[in-house]
Amino acid sequence: MTATFETQRAALADVVAIPVTPFAEDGSVERDTYRALLRRLLDGGITTLTPNGNTGEFYALTPEERRLVTELTVDEAGDRSTILVGIGHDVPTAIASARHARDLGAQMVMVHQPVHPYVSQAGWVDYHRAVAEAVPELGVVPYIRNAQLTGARLAELADACPNVIGVKYAVPDAARFAAFARDAGLDRFVWVAGLAEPYAPSYFSAGATGFTSGLVNVAPAVSLNMIEALRCGDYPAAMKVWEQIRRFEELRAANGSANNVTVVKEALASLGLCRREVRPPSKPLPETERAEVAAIAAGWSI
C-alpha cells in the first residue's frame, strides 16, 4: 500500500516552529533548557517542530549534537507534535541523519539547501532523490533557497520519490514562488513559506498553506494569530500581526540576516528563558540593541 502522508501534510500546513538550541555556560547544548523551551511551544499550541533548523544553528552543531537535539525533541514532544528533522551536508551524512530520525519515530525530514558552491539542477535532484529513496517511510521536504531552480525539477524529483510531499520555499520573491509552485504542481505539494511571518501573507496569497517561524520561540500566540487570519483569508488581520512583528523581523534580517538567530535568543534571554549565547559565525547582540529587543518581547504580553 502506498503511503499517503496525510498526517504529515496537515502538519506542514501550519506554523512550523524552528526551535533554538540553547547553550550552557561551558558551550554545550543545555538539555534541560531545550526541553523547557519545547514544552513552552507545545503548551502554547504549536504542533509541528523542526529540530536542527537554521534557527537551531544547524551548521554550528556537531554531528553528535544534531543527533542529541533530534533525540531530545522526539522524546519531549511524544505524541504532542509532528517532528520534521533538519538534515543535510554530504549525501551519506544526510541519509544517516534521516535514518536516525526515522528510527526514533520522527515523521518527516527537511533537507537543507545544499551549500556546495557548485550546484547543478540535475545534481540537486540527485541529492534529494538519494535521501528520499533511503527513507521511503518518511515525508521529505526540500528547503529551497536557490532562485535558479525550476519547478519542473521539483516535479521530476517527486515523480521518482512520492514521499517528497512538501516544500519549504525561501526565495524572497513572491512572484517567483507563485510561478515555481504552479510549474511544480500547486496541489501536488504542501507549500510552506520558508521566510517566516514577514513573507507569509504574500506567499499565502500565491498558494502557501504553512509558514516556518523562529519568532514562535518567543511568542507562540503571535504566530498562531497570523496563521489563523491567513486560513480565514483575513489579510487585513494578518497584516495587523505583520505590523506587530515588523521591527523584530527587521532586526533579524539586518546585514544579510546576520542576527537572525541572535535576536531570537536575545528576546528569550530578556524573558529569562535561555542564555543569549550563539556560536560563530553568529555573534550576540551589542548592548545598544538588547534593550530594543527586550522591549518588543515584553510588549507581546508573553
Can you give a write-up of this model?
The protein is of the alpha/beta class. The protein contains twelve helices and eight strands. Strands 1-8-7-6-5-4-3-2 form an eight-stranded parallel sheet, with helices on both faces. Helix 2 packs across helix 3 (63-77), helix 6 (151-160) runs parallel beside helix 7 and helix 10 (235-257) crosses helix 11 (260-270). The chain is 49% helix and 11% strand. Pfam families: DHDPS. Keywords: Lyase. This is Dihydrodipicolinate synthase family protein.
Total DSSP helices: 12
Q: Which stretches are low in confidence, meaning pLDDT under 50 for 5 or more residues running?
A: none
Give the amount of beta strand, in percent: 5-15%
Q: Spell the H/E element sequence.
A: HEHEHEHEHEHEHEHEHHHH
CA gyration radius, whole angstroms: 18 Å
Q: Biggest sheet, strands in spatial order?
A: 1-8-7-6-5-4-3-2
Number of β-strand runs: 8
The percentage helix is: 40-55%
User: What's the pLDDT, averaged over the residues?
Assistant: 97
Structural class: alpha/beta
> Cα distance, first to last residue?
46 Å
Q: State the major sheet.
A: 8 strands, parallel
Shape: globular
In short, what is this structure?
With 302 residues, this protein is of the alpha/beta class. It is built from twelve helices and eight strands. Helix 3 (63-77) links the parallel strand 2 and strand 3.
Explain the layout of strands and helices.
Layout: H1 6-12, E1 15-17, H2 31-43, E2 48-49, H3 63-77, E3 82-87, H4 91-104, E4 108-111, H5 121-134, E5 139-144, H6 151-160, E6 166-169, H7 174-184, E7 190-193, H8 200-205, E8 210-213, H9 220-231, H10 235-257, H11 260-270, H12 287-299
Parallel strand pairs: 1-8, 2-3, 3-4, 4-5, 5-6, 6-7, 7-8
Family: Belongs to the DapA family.
Pfam family, one: DHDPS
Keywords: Lyase
